[in-house]
Automatic annotation (TrEMBL), chain A:
<comment type="function">
    <text>Cis-aconitate decarboxylase that catalyzes production of itaconate and is involved in the inhibition of the inflammatory response. Acts as a negative regulator of the Toll-like receptors (TLRs)-mediated inflammatory innate response by stimulating the tumor necrosis factor alpha-induced protein TNFAIP3 expression via reactive oxygen species (ROS) in LPS-tolerized macrophages.</text>
</comment>
<keyword id="KW-0399">Innate immunity</keyword>
<dbReference type="InterPro" id="IPR042183">
    <property type="entry name" value="MmgE/PrpD_sf_1"/>
</dbReference>
<dbReference type="GO" id="GO:0045087">
    <property type="term" value="P:innate immune response"/>
</dbReference>
<protein>
    <recommendedName>
        <fullName>Cis-aconitate decarboxylase</fullName>
        <ecNumber>4.1.1.6</ecNumber>
    </recommendedName>
</protein>
<comment type="subunit">
    <text>Homodimer.</text>
</comment>
<dbReference type="GO" id="GO:0072573">
    <property type="term" value="P:tolerance induction to lipopolysaccharide"/>
</dbReference>
<keyword id="KW-0456">Lyase</keyword>
<dbReference type="InterPro" id="IPR036148">
    <property type="entry name" value="MmgE/PrpD_sf"/>
</dbReference>
TrEMBL record, chain B:
<dbReference type="InterPro" id="IPR042188">
    <property type="entry name" value="MmgE/PrpD_sf_2"/>
</dbReference>
<dbReference type="GO" id="GO:0005739">
    <property type="term" value="C:mitochondrion"/>
</dbReference>
<feature type="domain" description="MmgE/PrpD N-terminal">
    <location>
        <begin position="10"/>
        <end position="244"/>
    </location>
</feature>
<dbReference type="InterPro" id="IPR045337">
    <property type="entry name" value="MmgE_PrpD_C"/>
</dbReference>
<dbReference type="Pfam" id="PF03972">
    <property type="entry name" value="MmgE_PrpD_N"/>
</dbReference>
<dbReference type="GO" id="GO:0047613">
    <property type="term" value="F:aconitate decarboxylase activity"/>
</dbReference>
<comment type="similarity">
    <text>Belongs to the PrpD family.</text>
</comment>
<dbReference type="InterPro" id="IPR045336">
    <property type="entry name" value="MmgE_PrpD_N"/>
</dbReference>
<dbReference type="InterPro" id="IPR005656">
    <property type="entry name" value="MmgE_PrpD"/>
</dbReference>
Length: 493, 474
């Protein structure tokens, strides 16, 4: 109706000088031409055949790693707390399984919540560029939703498609702003784009129509956004848990007909939509999957962590490990604080990972100083480096007191361009240096399949029997040809 | 990290406030808010958005159950009861509005009532009043941390920012959390704050209040279980400050002896007469006055003789909607509300039905409406005005201006009119025993032994005549 109006009036409006109200009707974009509508259409139209082999391969690695870190995460205090909260405030619901807890099932959004918390509980999950932890926000929701589907479970290809939609949408949204390219200062990215990714993935799995897909995203936008201040605290894992849960909720509400803003992704002056979360924001429409669309995962690989700490820690750990090797070569075979006079770290400027004396495991996972010193002492940082005992080691505390931090101008707070340098001055005066530009596990130097499986075995093996561990490796490996993802769903606890 | 002890002061204050600090003034004002909130929540339980949320929420199982307002047979897990009841309260944009701008009660009362019904400690009416006022006070304080909050919003919808914090504070109070736990309740809630304004004027807007209530309650419960967040969440810009462009927090202190100055005593609240955005109330009052002038002067006046209607309003994009197509848009449209007032000589609950929105006569009038935003008209509920000028085909002009509508905090609703609004709203859903019972309980809240009695009245729907009879026999 409106488009007809436009056609008849457009040629003469300049001449007639219409009332302001009618002119404003003309100025409003055609509902089909908005960025928001293009996203809705993409999600509803994309199919398994649109996934290339490279994208399938990379996303299967992400699924495996995400399950593994979720499983080991199910041994943490914060997971336990989240699980008890759900079991206490709600009753058991025989629908969606909880990672690593045989017989434990919850309502789908609650399962997505606790499994998401587990995934991010140790900061062990994948990291992308621009920065976010994409899988933890999406996989728990897709798994929970698959469990919920009454008669036939999704096929492996459909499952992988939904997962990849969730990842793709997150990547696309982050490219709307320059702000997103740097280590965050205001909103914790998983809480901003993660919820949207989860909503998109679930909308895809539910086969919602394009309008419902748009509304799912818009509803999710009102559930997005958590401040950075809660990173490095026990609440941080809830950002991923909530992203997963609320994105699923948004899709479920959209499937029931709930509607929201049709312009949520578009930039409308005076009324913020998704741009509320960014200082600079330039949205772009998403082309149809049939128009030569390439998934971002094809062009930008994922970073996997080798130890459970913020991504930035991996640079200083690798740099410090090389110094450790030098030290050990020089001396008695172990490193002692008595050898060390001074430690200098050259790292990017980022307040929330600059912690000279962390007081909790959460803070330790977000401390350049802590990770550098641990690697200097032990030659590596592992899961065990963050236990209460490890945090209080006298040797470690001694080293921590000797650390200084510099922020060179050429070291940007950006996971694509940063480096980490560790310079140790020995008491005898000798200076040992280590530098890392690209740690092993970074997208420029990806973990081999062997290394990834090893990490998975170590993680999953904490809670599952070895047959289950191997079973999961097999089923995820063959996910793109699996007829029914039931085999995957049944092996998570 | 600059830690000025502000969050710490809030934790201490929430813990320290007790019923002896409640003054007559704040009790009387907050009881009016509670009554109004229950009424709008009840009428809101018949909306489409409420039904969608209710159906969704019913998929959750739980041992603890709390009442759904206006439903005799349905109960929900407490967080979801808070969710749907909060949605009901905001579903028609009929709930209270404060200055700086937010809808404070809808974020707090549903959470408290849901919680009260499941607590073994069986909170009293005074306990409820205290917790409610804590929730309101915290919201008021947080909004004073920025200049941005004093104007009609553009980025985040205020209830989604401060509402969840108020709900967390109120719930923490009712749960009698320690000062440290109160701090963490606020920190956890901060990670649940912030919904973009774009969803105002859509069906999702009521969820901002529903989610504020639910997630604030959840934050308090998680804090009770020992979950921790950042204990400086209000102090630092990367904490609560992320929701504002300018941010300057200050501490909250409760004198050990002596009076506590509640913000509600200094700054009263506005109650709506029309289920629409607050700004609409000015334009409707002005339109009705202009229309009256027109009627007085011109006999046999025909609205079709109107050539143009000019509205002089403050600049605010999300309530500038020339041709609304949904009820949600209509509630957020200066043009629609002015036109409805001119056409019908009133704007009521029924003005926003699909049939009414689509009337050809209304659309015709809408096409003649022009909006101007004079420089002296500030987008602030404390300072704005609306002018409506009607120009007829004969070249006559009739204008009227409204600076303060009836119901605004400068011109509060009389108690009689407030109770009347409540009765009309509540009667659409409850039988008369339920309506009277609620007026009675709220009126005597300070003396009520168990505030969960409210739940029983909220369930006395008019289709359940047997329930009314059985209550009479008590």
């Amino acid at each position: 109706m409106i488009s007809t109006l436009q056609k008849t009036i457009r040629p003469v409006w300049a001449v007639r000088g219409l009332h302001k109200s009618a002119v404003e009707v003309l100025k409003r974009p055609d509902p089909e031409d908005t960025v928001t509508a293009s996203y809705g259409r993409f999600i509803s139209e994309v199919k398994p055949q649109h996934l290339s082999s490279l994208v399938l391969h990379r996303s299967k690695r992400m699924v495996l790693d995400s399950i593994g870190v979720g499983l080991i995460g199910s041994t943490t205090d914060v997971f336990e707390l989240a699980l008890q909260h759900c079991q206490h405030m709600y009753a058991p619901d025989d629908i969606s399984s909880v990672y690593g807890r045989r017989g434990s099932r919850l309502s789908p959004t609650l399962a997505a919540f606790v499994n998401g918390v587990a995934t991010h509980s140790m900061d062990f999950d994948d990291t992308w560029h621009p920065a976010t932890h994409p899988s933890g926000a999406v996989l728990p929701a897709v798994l929970a939703l698959s469990d919920m589907m009454p008669n036939s479970k999704p096929s492996g290809p459909d499952f992988l498609l939904a997962f990849n939609v969730g990842i793709e949408i997150q990547g696309r949204l982050m490219r709307f702003s320059h702000e997103a390219h740097n280590i965050p200062k205001r909103f914790h990215p998983p809480s901003v784009v993660g919820t949207m990714g989860s909503a998109a993935a679930c909308a895809r799995l539910l086969s919602l129509d394009h309008s419902q897909c748009s509304h799912a995203l818009a509803i999710a936008a009102s559930l997005s956004g958590a401040p950075m201040a809660n990173a490095a605290t026990q609440s941080k894992p809830l950002h991923i848990g909530n992203a997963s849960r609320l994105g699923l909720e948004a899709a479920l509400l959209a499937s029931r007909g709930l509607e929201a803003s049709p312009l949520v992704l578009d930039a409308v002056a005076g009324v913020a939509g998704f741009d509320a979360f960014y200082e600079d924001y330039v949205p772009e429409p998403l082309e149809s999957p049939n128009d030569g669309h390439v998934f971002l995962l094809e062009e930008q690989d994922m970073g996997f962590k080798r130890f459970p700490a913020h991504l930035g820690m991996h640079w200083v750990a690798d740099a410090a490990a090389s110094v450790h090797k030098l030290l050990v070569g020089l001396g008695p075979g172990t490193v002692s604080p008595s050898q060390v006079q001074d430690i200098l770290l050259r790292v990017p400027k980022s307040k929330y990972i600059n912690r000279p004396f962390p007081e909790s495991e959460h803070e330790a996972r977000h401390s350049f100083q802590f990770n550098a010193c641990s690697a200097l002492l032990d030659g590596e940082v592992t899961v065990q480096s963050f236990t209460p005992a490890a945090l209080r080691r006298p040797d470690l505390l001694a080293l921590l007191s000797r650390v200084h931090v510099e922020h060179p101008h050429d070291n940007p707070a950006n996971f694509n361009s940063m480096y980490g340098e560790v310079q140790v001055t020995l008491v005898e005066g000798e200076i040992l240096k280590g530098r890392c530009d690209t740690f092993y596990g970074h997208w420029r130097n990806p973990l081999t399949n062997e290394s990834l499986r090893k990490k998975f075995r170590n993680n999953a093996g904490e809670v599952l029997r070895s047959e289950q561990v191997e079973g999961l490796i097999d089923v995820v490996g063959g996910l793109d040809t699996l007829g029914d993802c039931r085999d995957l769903l049944s092996q998570l606890q | 990290m600059l830690c000025k002890g502000i969050t710490e002061s809030f934790g201490a204050a929430i813990h320290a406030l007790n019923t002896t600090k409640l003054t007559d003034g704040v009790i009387s004002r907050s009881k009016r808010m509670m009554l109004d909130t229950l009424g709008v929540g009840l009428i809101g339980s018949r909306t489409a958005v409420f039904n969608k949320a209710l159906t969704y929420s019913q998929s959750f199982k739980s041992d603890e159950r709390s009442s759904v307002w206006g439903k005799s047979q349905i109960t929900l897990p407490p967080p979801y009861a808070a969710f749907v009841n909060g949605i009901a309260v905001h579903s028609m944009d009929f709930d209270d509005t404060w200055h700086p701008a937010t809808h404070p009660s809808g974020a707090v009362l549903p959470a408290l009532l849901a919680l009260a019904e499941m607590l073994p400690s069986r909170p009293s009416g005074l306990d409820l009043l205290l917790a409610f006022n804590v929730g309101i006070e915290v919201q008021g304080r947080l909004m004073r941390f920025s200049r941005e909050a004093f104007n009609i919003p553009e980025r985040f919808h205020p209830p989604s920012v401060v509402g969840v914090m108020g709900s967390a504070a109120a719930s923490a109070k009712l749960l009698a959390l320690s000062p440290a736990e109160c701090i963490h309740a606020l920190a956890i809630a901060a990670s649940s704050a912030g919904a973009p304004l774009a969803n105002a004027a859509t069906q999702t807007k009521p969820l901002h209040i529903g989610n504020a209530a639910r997630r604030g309650l959840e934050a308090a419960q998680l804090a009770q279980m020992g979950l921790e967040g950042n204990p400086a969440i209000l102090d630092i810009p990367s904490g609560f400050g992320v929701y504002y462009k300018d941010y300057s927090p200050s501490a909250m202190t409760v004198p050990a002896s002596g009076d506590f100055k509640w913000m509600l005593e200094d700054q009263d609240i506005a109650f709506k007469r029309i289920p629409a955005h607050l700004g609409m109330h000015w334009v409707v009052d002005a339109a009705l006055a202009a229309r009256a002038k027109l009627e007085n002067t011109a006999r046999n006046f025909d609205l079709r003789q109107i050539r143009r209607v000019t509205l002089r309003v403050p600049p605010s994009k999300y309530v500038d909607c020339p041709l609304p197509s949904t009820e949600h848009q209509a509630r957020h449209s200066f043009q629609f509300n002015a036109s409805s007032a001119l056409l019908d000589n009133k704007v009521t609950v029924s003005s926003f039905s699909e049939a009414q929105i689509n009337r050809p006569a209304l659309k015709e009038l809408l096409s003649k409406v022009k909006v101007e935003t004079p420089k002296d008209n500030q987008p602030s509920f404390d300072k704005m005005y609306c002018e409506v000028e009607i120009e007829t085909d004969q070249g006559q002009s009739y204008a009227a201006r409204c600076d303060t509508f009836y119901g605004h905090w400068r011109k509060p609703l009389s108690q009689e009119d407030l109770v009347d609004k409540f009765s009309v709203n509540a009667s659409s859903v409850l039988c008369s025993e339920g309506v009277e019972g609620l007026i009675d309980v709220i009126g005597n809240m300070e003396r009520v032994r168990e505030c969960s009695i409210l739940g029983s009245y909220l369930r006395l729907t008019s289709s359940q005549q047997e329930q009314c009879y059985s209550l009479r026999r008590l």
